[in-house]
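Supplementary Text 2. Reproducibility record for the structural model of the 256-residue chain.

All settings were left at their defaults, and a single model was retained for analysis rather than an ensemble. We include the record here because the model underlies the residue-level annotations in Supplementary Table 4.
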Amino acid sequence: MSAIHPTAIIDSSAELGEVAIGPYAVIEANAVVGTGTTIGAHSVVKRYTRIGRDNRIAEHVVIGGDPQDLKFTDCASFVELGNGNIVREGVTIHRGSAPESPTRIGDGCFLMATAHVAHDCTVGNRVVIANGAMLGGVVSIGDAAFVSGNVVVHQFCRIGRLAMAAGGARVIQDCLPFMISEGAPARARVLNIVGLRRAGVPAEEIAALKRALHALRTAGSLAAALDRLAADNSAAVAELAEFIRSATRGFAHPRG
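Retained model, structure tokens:
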């Protein structure tokens, strides 16, 4: 059974499951909010937003705001928020910038206070975006990545699966999966050992990734490093190599 505060404002076209909505919250036209979701006081779910089940949305959150893109002209575009996410105070998530385009956030993510997700971003499952972190437009974050506090991510960059961008990093190129990148500009520093172990990555795969990091640091060229990675019979190393090959902005090279 829903629990909706009498001061909340809900458009008649919004579709709500069994939800809890706090004082002075606003749910705009054509929004969808799934069963089990709670929305805190003074939060705003803008038009065309689609929120799944069992999300916890805190106070003063704005989901589905217009893109901060000078080329944007009003159209039907979306934010799609999955299931079981935690969105803390003051978070802003902007909708896509082209007709029918989405900003997507997966399942089981934790967006801490004042984090910002810009238009057309894709955030995977079980991602943590810490306090004050800012994603530019069309950023992609892989599953189980960790974006630390006050990290700024340039538009079109990718952060790979099980990667960590360390606190205050300035990300202007892709951050390699499985690595910790830090600095301004961010550079891969070490393997994300803690994250890999928590994710249950087998010890032999971690050892292979250590060899891959050494190859990237010591090979005379990127082509030579990729040849060494290709010779390693490891699924994780193959994923790392494919990520490098598909980079369009370059990637944050490991420190020597």
